[in-house]
Write a structure and sequence with these properties.
By secondary structure, the protein is an alpha/beta fold. The protein has nine helices and eleven strands. The chain has two domains: 86 residues, Leucine Dehydrogenase, chain A, domain 1 (Rossmann fold, 3-Layer(aba) Sandwich); 132 residues, Rossmann fold (3-Layer(aba) Sandwich), CATH 3.40.50.720.
């Protein structure tokens, strides 16, 4: 068997084109969707993420409020900035790039963002609404995974979904979303304390891996014909590569010979994350009509 590759790059562009059309309508009504992107410090990886988000916003016809703060910024200063952005009617979304410097309590920062502008779905109220199945923004990466499953018509209702990894960003939200009546999957959440991980992964109709462990899920650990969603993004040393490293996921690509569906890395889940962020910003702007 050779798995069907789930092309997140193409689907992500489809979502972004839809968002772009919505932005045209918004602009016709005098509203320019705006995301305030706050970066504290000069972390190279964070800067790279921010630049890619800003580029995507511009391509969608949105405004990016680019705010760069020094590493020495205090918690009080950052919270004051967020309070200003909360009040600014021209700002529809607020994103504070993680991680923040040690002198700042990240939980306080997240809780300070107006839930109406919490397009990352990190605020406790946003998370609560998600768990209860109430209206609100969905976290970008988990939402992107759900859209991929729908696009490829992978049966979720009544299936056994196994999620490996319990991060607040991916694992926990996905486990909760998949267990809602809308999806009605039976969900098993595995983590570092799970004994005999393969015992669970081999039962999965849908296996979602977000564990930050390069290529550790092997073909013998999956069920034949399963849908395998690889959320991992890792850099590993590779002297043969031009940059001296290569990007890989948490799943061994050899799994594609046994799975029914498989998300490649790169080009699978990654492009969906930014697409869903843009969709959340557009949705927030539409609520101001």
């Amino acid at each position: 068997m050779s798995a069907i590759l789930m092309d997140g790059k193409t689907l992500g562009m489809k979502v972004r084109e839809n968002v772009k059309a919505r932005v045209v309508t918004l602009r016709t009504n005098g509203i320019i969707p705006c995301l305030a992107v706050v970066l504290v410090g000069d972390d190279a990886a964070s800067l790279s993420y921010v630049v890619s988000k800003e580029k995507a916003l511009a391509e969608a016809g949105m405004e990016s409020r680019d705010i760069r703060l020094p590493q020495s910024t205090s918690e009080t200063e950052l919270l004051a900035l967020i309070a200003e952005l909360n009040k600014d009617e021209k700002v529809h979304g607020i994103l504070v790039q993680s991680p923040v410097p040690k002198q700042i309590d990240e939980d306080k920062v997240i809780s300070a963002i107006d839930p109406k502008k919490d397009v990352d779905c990190f605020h406790p109220l946003s998370v609560g609404n998600m768990i209860l199945g109430k209206p609100g923004f969905l976290p970008c990466t988990p939402h992107g995974v759900l859209v991929l499953l729908k696009e490829y018509k992978i049966p979720v209702y009544g299936s056994h979904a196994v999620v490996v990894g319990r991060s607040h960003l991916v694992g926990k939200p996905l486990a909760n979303l998949l267990s809602l009546k809308e999806y009605n999957a039976t969900v098993t959440l595995c983590h570092t304390g799970t004994k005999d991980l393969a015992c669970f992964t081999k039962q999965a109709d849908i296996l979602i891996v977000a564990a930050r462990n390069p290529e550790f899920i092997k073909p013998e650990m999956i069920k034949e014909g399963a849908a395998v969603i690889d959320v991992g993004i890792n850099r590993i040393t590779d002297p043969s590569a031009k940059k001296g490293y290569r990007v890989c996921g948490d799943v061994d690509p050899a799994v594609a010979d046994k799975a029914g569906f498989y998300t490649p890395v790169p080009g699978g889940v990654g492009p969906m994350t930014i697409a869903m962020l843009l969709q959340n910003v557009a949705e927030s702007a539409e609520k101001s009509l």
